[in-house]
């Protein structure tokens, strides 16, 4: 069995490899192939990966290549996590909208739109390569903005063996598990919506509904959360208390838009700029532990839930072990208030044959309308990215709840197009 990671030089990769190695017997005698265009960091991760394989006592060969076709050929699972333009261009996605009084965010609003313009063409090329060079392979996607990437792939390749992932629902499971003092793998979510825009109507612990119990805690914690700075955890508690459902934490950007915008405008650095300072030290750590005979990671790029989700999905498919996850794929009626032929995010049972959606109950009207509104703007932006159509991008910017009316929408879109020009040949 061959597993390929496209974007293998990412700082997220070592944790994902550790997750895969927890069930390394599934991949015994196989190959782990890392692909990236960043040769320096690719070689660091390659050396570290070989050390992690030794530490786990796994029978797994590690290879690395800058040749994408070589990486894809013969693979059974392909994890995609490229970042087109790197953190430098993510910083532009965040900073340019802020100059105009708009939220700059990696996956939401006009920053997320610009990221989609860069990522979608590459992901479509990758899927086309996989269909030609590894037609039986499953693509497990982490590339952001994940929802718009999934929408584009399904539009171009309706039958693609493709599953989009986001670690936000898994992060909610982890947080709820910690609150209930249980292993978060015992938690399941009834989730309906899109990537970074959905609601959990029920929380299940070993198939028992514990939502009412959690609502009581939210009622107690809500007043305290209102007194604390608006962050992921406090925003989630506040929205849960106000709506009676657990939100995707990113919904705070829509419901508390003005408060978050003030914070972003007053902050000295964007999130990308913070990461640009931090990541060199993280790669230094990776390089240092890679020299050890049995390396052990002491520093990590992201939350445990990120690596756990990708590795668990691949393991469930490799083992043919039916397991429930929240995924992104064609809606097909699983999320009632969204178009059935477009991408959505919902629970599904994943196994060796693929996935089976678990239909979700309808959301209340107010919450459903906001998500449908966001989805409609993102679908327009996907078309803009695929067709290289500036006018569609402007329409999407006007429609999005974090966007802007004319003429400001056009000015921000033009500035983003100019800033990312080397990565946007479709708009030429």
Automatic annotation (TrEMBL):
Binds 1 NAD(+) per subunit. It comes from the Bacteria. Its EC number is 3.2.1.86. Its cofactor is NAD(+). It is an enzyme of class 3 (hydrolase). InterPro entries: GlycHydrolase_4_CS (IPR019802), Glyco_hydro_4 (IPR001088), Glyco_hydro_4_C (IPR022616), Lactate_DH/Glyco_Ohase_4_C (IPR015955), NAD(P)-bd_dom_sf (IPR036291). Pfam families: Glyco_hydro_4, Glyco_hydro_4C. GO terms for molecular function: 6-phospho-beta-glucosidase activity. Keywords: Glycosidase, Hydrolase, Manganese, Metal-binding, NAD. The keyword Acyltransferase does not apply. Residues 191-402 form the Glycosyl hydrolase family 4 C-terminal domain. Signal peptide: none annotated. Belongs to the glycosyl hydrolase 4 family. Homotetramer. This is 6-phospho-beta-glucosidase. It comes from Symbiobacterium terraclitae.
């Amino acid at each position: 069995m061959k597993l390929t990671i496209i974007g293998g030089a990412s700082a997220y990769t070592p944790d994902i490899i550790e997750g895969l190695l927890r069930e390394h017997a599934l991949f015994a005698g196989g190959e782990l192939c890392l692909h990236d265009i960043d040769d320096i960091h690719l070689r660091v991760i390659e050396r570290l990966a070989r050390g992690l394989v030794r530490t786990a006592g796994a029978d797994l060969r590690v290879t690395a290549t800058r040749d994408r076709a070589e990486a894809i050929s013969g693979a059974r699972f392909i994890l995609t996590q490229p970042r087109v333009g790197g953190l430098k261009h993510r910083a532009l996605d965040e900073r340019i909208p802020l100059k105009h009084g708009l939220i700059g965010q990696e996956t939401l609003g006009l920053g997320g739109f610009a990221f989609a313009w860069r990522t979608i063409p590459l992901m479509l090329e990758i899927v086309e390569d996989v269909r030609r060079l590894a037609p039986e392979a499953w693509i497990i996607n982490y590339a952001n903005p994940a929802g718009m990437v999934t929408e584009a792939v399904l539009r171009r390749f309706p039958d693609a063996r493709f599953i989009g992932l986001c670690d936000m629902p898994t992060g909610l499971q982890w947080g709820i598990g910690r609150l209930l003092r249980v292993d978060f793998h015992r938690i399941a979510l009834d989730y309906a919506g899109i990537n970074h825009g959905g609601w959990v109507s029920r929380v299940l612990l070993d198939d028992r509904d514990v939502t009412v119990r959690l609502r009581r805690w939210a009622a107690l914690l809500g007043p305290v959360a209102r007194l604390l700075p608006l962050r992921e955890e406090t925003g989630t508690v506040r929205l849960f208390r106000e709506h009676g459902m657990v939100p995707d934490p990113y919904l705070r950007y829509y419901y508390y838009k003005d408060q978050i915008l003030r914070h972003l405008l007053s902050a000295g650095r964007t999130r990308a700029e913070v990461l640009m300072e931090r990541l060199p030290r993280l790669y230094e750590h990776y390089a240092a532990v890679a020299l050890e005979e049995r390396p052990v990671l002491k520093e990590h790029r992201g939350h445990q839930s990120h690596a756990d989700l990708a590795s668990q999905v691949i393991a469930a498919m490799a083992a043919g072990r039916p397991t429930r996850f929240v995924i992104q794929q064609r809606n097909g009626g699983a999320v009632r208030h969204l178009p059935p032929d477009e991408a959505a995010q919902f629970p599904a049972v994943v196994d060796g044959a693929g996935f089976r959606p678990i239909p979700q109950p309808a959301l209340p009207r107010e919450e459903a309308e906001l998500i449908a509104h966001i989805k409609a703007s993102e679908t327009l932006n996907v078309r803009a990215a695929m067709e290289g159509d500036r006018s569609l991008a402007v329409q999407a910017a006007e429609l999005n709840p974090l966007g802007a009316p004319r003429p400001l929408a056009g000015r921000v879109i033009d500035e983003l197009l100019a800033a990312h020009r080397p990565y946007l040949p479709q708009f030429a």
